[in-house]
Amino acid sequence: MSFGSFLIATTCGIFLIIILALLAQRFNASGNSWLMTLWLAWLASLLWAFTRPSFSVIFTGLVLSMFIFIIVPATGAQLYGSTVLATHNYIAGVIPALKIAVVAQVAMLAGAMGPSATTR
Question: What residues does each domain of the chain span?
Answer without folding.
Answer: 3-118
